Amino acid sequence: MPYDPSDARSALPGATATAPAGPAADADHVKFYELPPTATEGGARTWYGRSQHLVIGYTDLAGETEFTLPGGGDESAVLMPETTTTALISLNGETTEVPGGTLSFLPPAQATVRLSGHGRVVTIFTARTAPPWAAAANAESYREPHPNVAPLTAWPDPAGGPRLRTYDLDVPGLAEPPFRLFRCSTFMVNYIHPRTGPRDTTRMSPHKHDDFEQCSLVLEGDYVHHLRWPWGTDLSEWRDDQHERCGSPSLTVIPPPALHTSQAVGAGVNHLIDIFAPPRLDFSRMDGWVLNAADYPMPGEA
Asked: What percent of the chain has pLDDT over 90?
């Protein structure tokens, strides 16, 4: 329980004697289906949303489109959930054809990405090195940094140095929860297995994060994001519980230290993925959880 540091009860075991860095932020629910696209080019419509450390793009692809990355800074990612899309990625004088059904981490170098086909494509950048054209619909929410979010510190460079790395998404991963975890040096992608039908409401998983945000991207179906903010010592900062229904596509940014869980409610396929920056240390410490752990060392392992 939180107590003001002047309260003698703050010395009790398990008591919280120190206040958080600042008031907890609101959750951001960026419902792309209710917004005009940020960019319409060729056969593509693209929306962007952001958290403190990430800018995430969602593209409805029907044909071809191309974008150029300026290089420098941090790695970025191209995620193609469907095998009906492909990408030609050109960097360092070489062009690689990447099939759909994959997640690719791109090194911090100048690159051109040409997308073709029909389906959905997700692009991920860190906010500090996102291209200027990746304008987030909720940028106003981050005009000032959120005090409870820890600074983004990059993990060690990948084994063998930065280069294009592509991973197949059609891999087993964990059984329960149905996670498929991949990380690069600055963020982690949890490509969760799709669900069919509503979630079993007797098996919810409310939890919180002390100092990092969770970006939950709904690719298909409908979810209700349940959030509850902790009560601190300042009553003026208390807020009501939130139960926000979000269809697809949408991005919800869950702030620390809000208690949260997401409930699939659609009758058909429901598919949500989570993205974290920096990579989650707790998940990374679990043997076998991160599927590309051999490529990306944890801090202290380089």
From this structure: 85
